[in-house]
Design brief:
The structure holds 2 protein chains of 2 kinds. By secondary structure, chain A is an all-alpha fold. Chain A has a domain at about 70-205: Four Helix Bundle (Hemerythrin (Met), subunit A), CATH 1.20.120.80. Chain A contains 6 helices and no strands. Chain B folds into 4 domains: about 25-190, Cytochrome C Oxidase, Chain A; about 200-240 and about 255-325, no CATH class; about 360-515, no CATH class; about 535-588, no CATH class. Chain B has helices spanning about 15-20, 25-55, 65-105, 110-130, 160-190, 200-235, 255-290, 300-310, 325-355, 365-385, 390-395, 400-430, 435-460, 480-495, 500-510; strands spanning about 245, 250. A two-stranded antiparallel ribbon of chain B has the order 1-2. In chain B, a hairpin with a 2-residue loop joins strand 1 and strand 2 (about 250). In chain B, helix 2 (about 25-55) runs parallel beside helix 4 (about 110-130) and helix 4 (about 110-130) runs antiparallel to helix 5. Chain B starts with 16 loop residues before the first helix and ends in a 76-residue tail after the last helix. Mean pLDDT of chain B is about 95; it is low at about 580-588. Classes of the chains: A mainly alpha, B mainly alpha. Chains A and B meet through helix 2 and helix 5 of A and helix 5, helix 6, helix 7 and helix 8 of B.
């Protein structure tokens, strides 16, 4: 913030002779462009999830809201997502240490755990619908399907990137590019784990 | 490595037509694709407005306009103009064209995603237009799409039209997000050496601030669209209250239509600035260039853009005064709404002071820019009326509101769209447009819009309600109002038809226009310093430019030429403006 204020307080029209040398590099961040793009995407996605949560909180005050008994499967699913996040972090660290074998193994494990998470979420939907909580039964169940669906869709998008990276790794492509993709995957998974944590907490306590 | 990072070597673009002009990843081609698509869909919306006006001015003269068709025209006109024309044109069009060039980059940092952004936009337009070809036609719910009426039988287009509209919006938001992430990352990461944030032209500041607003605000539209789709397709009741419809109680119920309104306007109000902020930026650069004078109060202009963007997120409920809210909330939103006037007024004063004692060249871009100040001022002042709860309530849903928002966020930005097209046309095509035709276009548009919208203020004061299909039998509407409506209709259709002058000028000048040269306006910003005109693929041939100064070194004291390009190194004879001994007046 201080830096932004300092920037905005500068006087660009006073281009004195001290600036006669070669202009300086002005990149705002010293890490990769893709990482900057991903962080910017987190702003968008956070805005999206925050607004869903605001909608949830505002809708739940109406009298027809009937709290939902969340399926226990969600706890197991959460475990899978934690495992996925840990595995991808491990993969990322392995790649940094040039341990390609373990890195690839952990990366595969991260994807597999994510697929298990998504399968588990579908199973939770199945359990709820069998218990009579369909998408239109009650606003609480509507939100359950909606929030888990939107979160799942984000994870599916991540799995597309994961699959591309995996293909790249198996084809023996550029190592640096693969490492960069694994790095981004790990960060994205951590973000989705945090989002899931918030959503799961919201679903549990309301 | 992103394309924009590559700073050496000559950059050859693809040669095959399809990769060069259709599936292109070149930001300039994508910008033109965005612009042409936006103009095409905008022309459709223009025709819809004529049909609306025919019904209002000469009711029953066109037999095919029944109430359903009328409401469909209103809805599609509004949505297309706000989202698919103005937002797409300013950010997809000018954003794409100018950001890399003005920042001294070779392209956007993610060119492939940039290309996808355009194609998603095109798909969203196709989905929207397809709603004319489905049973029931497009939705007639009004551009705000308020539930419950937007999804209840009886409103036009509740079968498929509303579904396609919501789907189209969702796809548009995905397109916008892909483009927006590109703009942000490019500005942060791909500026050339020396291009500090505070040396960026105000066009880039305006576009990037609007992009940030969009990235944070469009999710609200996405959320409301998805939830409304659920209500429509899956019978949920996020927004649907208990309703007895056509004598029967609906199964859905308990939801809150006001929740939709909050979500919608949390997007809807920043949307005004998503359109306005790029316009502010572009017009600042055009005014400065054609007044041969540095922009007055550059730093204040940047702060004002940021302040307006920030405040725009805490004013949304002024669109909902008549929906009912806590009195103190009304007071809060009225206050924040009026506070927006402060940074906005700073900008208007600074534009005026930029013109003051400038060497004003009254060419077409300059005329349209001055026209913008005029129309924006009028629209802004009526906004002060409507920002107050006590004044808004009687004026709400009258033609005063229609006149206000058309002046401030339709005509004013369109003035800038024209100004900017005329200004950058020589760079985009390498040819000059026809100046005489351009001036005719300006005067017809400028005077014409006043003829259309000034009388609407009067109609609004008279209490003439908006959104009505027919006005027979309303005794409180005076006889003069009907004559005035006929006048407005004739003016609207005339001004609309005469926009053909613009199209003729643009198309004719492509081949027959005078060769422009690289910098016909003697402008300072980087896009005018490219080695090729139009710029080649990669923009800068072998070496990226280096920036030594800000973007507004016009009429610098002691210099032979009245402009110093941003990439011109400081020389020994140049006065050192950072010292007290500087000659001439440094800007505020």
């Amino acid at each position: 913030m201080t830096s932004l204020v300092k920037t905005l307080a500068s006087k660009p029209w006073l281009s004195g002779k001290d600036q006669m040398g070669e202009p300086v590099e002005v990149r705002s961040f010293h890490f990769a462009d893709k990482k900057v793009g991903l962080l910017a995407f987190f702003f968008v996605a956070s805005s999206l999830f925050m607004l869903f949560i605001v909608g949830y909180r505002l809708r739940m005050v109406y009298e027809d809201w009937a709290p939902l008994q969340e399926p226990l499967t969600l706890w197991i699913n959460s475990g899978f997502l934690v495992l996925a996040s840990l595995a991808l972090e491990f993969a990322r660290q392995c790649m940094k240490r040039d341990n390609l074998r373990w890195g690839r193994w952990a990366f595969n494990a991260g994807g597999a755990a994510s697929l298990l998470f998504l399968t588990g979420q579908l199973a939770a939907w199945q359990q709820l619908s069998e218990a009579g909580y369909m998408v239109a039964s009650n606003p609480a169940s509507s939100f359950f399907y909606l929030l888990t669906g939107i979160h799942g869709a984000h994870l599916l998008g991540g799995l597309v990137a994961w699959a591309r990276t995996l293909t790249h790794l198996q084809a023996g492509g550029d190592r640096a590019a693969a490492q960069s993709s694994m790095d981004l995957c790990a960060i994205y998974w951590h973000y989705l784990l945090i989002v899931w944590g918030v959503l799961f907490y919201l679903l549990l306590v309301t | 490595m992103a394309y924009a990072d590559q700073d050496t070597g000559h950059h050859h673009g693809p040669d095959a037509f399809i990769w060069k002009y259709v599936w292109s990843q070149d930001h300039k081609v994508i910008a033109i694709q965005y612009g042409c698509t936006a103009i095409a869909v905008g022309l459709l919306a223009l025709v819809l407005s004529w049909l609306m006006r025919m019904q209002i001015g000469f009711p029953g003269s066109l037999e095919f306009i029944d109430p359903s068709a009328y409401y469909q025209y209103v809805t599609m006109h509004g949505m297309i103009m706000v989202i698919y024309l103005l937002t797409a044109f300013f950010l997809g069009g000018f954003g794409n064209y100018l950001i890399p060039l003005m920042c001294g980059a070779r392209d956007m940092v993610f060119p492939f995603m940039n290309m996808l952004s355009y194609w998603f936009y095109l798909v969203s337009v196709i989905i929207l237009v397809a709603s004319y070809f489905v049973p029931g036609g497009p939705t007639g719910a009004g551009w705000t799409l308020y539930p419950p009426q937007s999804i209840l039988q009886g409103t036009p287009g509740t079968d498929w039209g509303i579904v396609l509209m919501l789907l189209s919006l969702a796809v548009f938001i995905v397109a916008f997000t892909m483009g927006g992430l590109n703009y942000i990352t490019t500005v942060l990461q791909a500026r050339c050496r020396g291009m500090t944030l505070m040396r960026m032209p105000l066009s880039v500041w305006g576009i990037i601030a609007a992009t940030l607003l969009g990235l944070l605000a469009f999710p609200a539209l996405f959320v409301s669209a998805v939830m409304l789709l659920f209500d429509r397709l899956l019978d949920t009741s996020f927004f649907m209250p208990y309703i007895v419809h056509m004598g029967q109680a609906l199964e859905t119920g308990g939801g809150s239509p006001v929740l939709f309104q909050h979500l919608f306007w949390f997007f809807g109000h920043p949307e005004v600035y998503i359109v306005a902020l790029p316009a502010f930026g572009l017009v600042s650069d055009i005014l400065s260039t054609h007044a041969r004078k540095n922009i007055f109060g550059y730093r204040m202009m940047v702060w004002a853009i940021i302040a307006i963007g920030g405040i725009s997120f805490i004013v949304w409920a002024h669109h909902m005064y008549i929906s009912g809210m806590n009195l103190y909330l009304g007071y809060f939103f009225a206050t924040t709404t009026l506070i927006v006037a402060i940074p906005t007024a700073i900008k208007v004063y600074n534009w005026t002071l930029t013109l003051w004692h400038g060497n004003i060249i009254l060419n077409t871009p300059m005329l349209f820019s001055i026209g913008f100040i005029s129309t924006f001022l009028i629209g802004g002042l009526t906004g002060l009326f409507l920002g107050n709860v006590a004044v808004d309530i009687p004026l709400s849903d009258t033609y005063f509101v229609v006149a206000h928002f058309h002046m401030v966020m339709a005509i004013a930005p369109v003035m800038v769209v024209f100004a900017a097209i005329y200004h950058w046309y020589p760079k985009m095509t390498g040819r000059m447009y026809n100046e005489a035709l351009g001036k005719w276009h300006f005067w017809i548009t400028f005077l014409g819009t006043y003829l259309i919208y000034f009388p609407m203020h009067y109609l609004g004061f008279e209490g003439m309600p908006r959104r009505y299909y027919a006005y027979e039998g309303y005794e409180f509407i005076s006889a003069s109002a009907y004559g005035l409506n006929q006048f407005i209709t004739v003016a609207a259709i005339s001004v609309g038809v005469l926009q053909v002058l613009f199209l003729i000028n643009m198309i004719w000048s492509l081949k027959a226009g005078r060769v422009a040269g690289p910098n016909p306006w003697l402008a300072t910003t980087l896009e005018w310093q490219t080695p090729d005109t139009p710029p080649c693929h990669g923009n800068w041939r072998d070496e990226l430019p280096m920036v030594y100064r800000w973007a507004y070194d016009y009429s610098v004291p002691g210099q032979e030429q009245d402009y110093l390009p941003q990439n011109q190194p400081m020389d020994n004879g140049e006065p050192d403006l950072s010292t007290d001994s500087a000659t001439g007046a440094a800007p505020a």
